[in-house]
Amino acid sequence: MAKLLSVLLSAVLVNNFVLSKFMGICPFLGVSKKTDSALGMGGAVIFVMTMAAAVTFPVYNFILVPLQLDYLRTIVFILIIAMFVQLVELILKRFLPALGKSLGIYLPLITTNCAVLGVTILNADSYADSFLLSIVNALGGGIGFALALIIFSGVRERMEEADIPDFFKGLPATLVAASILSLAFSGFSGVVEGLFPGV
Questions:
Q1: Tens digit of pLDDT for each residue in 120-157?
Q2: SS3 106
Q3: Are 69 and 135 in contact, with CB atoms under 8 Å apart?
Q4: Angle at 135 between CA 130 and CA 136, to 5 degrees
Q5: Whole-angstrom distance, CA of residue 125 vs CA of residue 141
Q6: Torsions phi, psi of 15, nearest 5?
Q7: Helix, strand, or coil here: 19?
Q8: Is residue 37 a contact partner of residue 107, using CB atoms and an 8 Å limit?
Q9: How far is residue 144's CA from residue 13's CA, in Å, rounded to a whole number?
Q10: pTM for this one?
Q11: Which of 31, 49, 77, 142 is at a distance of 20 to 30 A from 56, taking alpha carbons?
Q12: How do residues 59-71 score in pLDDT, each as one tens digit?
């Protein structure tokens, strides 16, 4: 149980895909203008990351590796991710059309989101011997992505009301705020080791 919590908290806080590994920056910057769209994108990424990890684990370990086709893993993983993104897009169009419209082009871009692909490749490299750990790592990665997106959307909404010099408005202020948030998350680096020593 301690190992599972350690992997989960590491993925959410310490090894956050957006703020530590700088993966998935495109949707992070594009969808974080409003909290509603950040919540929707965060939920979609959590779902796609977790389901993609659940499917890529057996495909990689029981099909690609035994047939010595592991060099095809990136292509296969992208196809699996694309399948789940299409599923999410269909569900949103059917049940939550306003959210699907607000996410716009960034929803299909989850397919090429390097954070989602990164978690599947990380699982194949680091957690290939444990299905449960790979799922927990993917879930933590998705939660961390959503957490960063939601926090940053709050920061950007506050920045809209702030008196910022004209030359600094827009992308410069956004990038500086993102870097400060990234530095804040680096403060979690020793927390997991302190909570779970020797795990």
A1: 999 999 998 999 999 999 999 999 999 999 999 999 98
A2: helix
A3: no
A4: 100
A5: 15
A6: -105, 40
A7: coil
A8: no
A9: 6
A10: 0.89
A11: 31
A12: 999 999 999 999 9
